[in-house]
Amino acid sequence: MSLPRPSPVAAESGELSRAQSSQGQPLQVQSSAVSSSEEQFFGQQFSNAERSLLLRLAHDSILSALEHREIPLDPPTAHLAEPRGAFTTLYLRGQLRGCIGYVLPVSPVYRAVADTARAAAFEDRRFSRVKLPEARELEIELSILSRPQPISPDAVEIGRHGLIISIAGRRGLLLPQVPVEHHWDCTTFLEQTCRKAGLPLDAWQKGAQIEAFTAEVFGDKG
User: Fold this and answer.
1) Whose CA is closest to 111, among 85, 135, 91?
2) CB under 8 Å to 54, separation ≥6 — which residues?
3) d(CA 153, CA 205)
4) Residue 11 binned pLDDT confidence (cut-offs 50, 70, 90)
5) What mean pLDDT comes out for the span 16-29?
6) Mean pLDDT across the chain
7) For residues 190 and 163, is the Cβ–Cβ distance under 8 A?
């Protein structure tokens, strides 16, 4: 039986080919504001077997919806039952095809991956719904998130943090991979996260809340 889900968040992942170095996704950040419990997210927290299992789940979640069949969603291990924020990014022939996720750890990581995979395939309003022939060709990348923590602008580190910037009911999120693939510096990363929220580029300097998170990122291509 399907459980109620919180509203997913679409994340920018790059509008051009994945191969183009000017485009990209989320990334991870370093800061004294990030607690020691968050530091554990650097390095591999999920085994290769768990990574493979989660990627298979993401693919099967999309295919099963198109084939009108049920799949089990009970986490197979205690580790995969731990709550985590998660984003699923879809690529088709090197092009972004969808990216949706949960910022906060609202459900077990196993369930979060299944839900966000389907949401990325069918609910990302930037794209038409994925069709069955496309689903069989998709490449999937998963980002498993730590809990967001407040951070000062000068503590943001490219390649380590993803960012959330919010004010007055608007919120923008960019995953840790984004600034790395776009070759952004820290100021540009902050400005582009503001842009994602529909805010002025300097909103991060004028009272907007800045939060950082880390991510363990893995996909079909390693």
Assistant:
1) 85
2) 46, 80, 109, 110, 113, 142
3) 9
4) low
5) 28
6) 84
7) yes
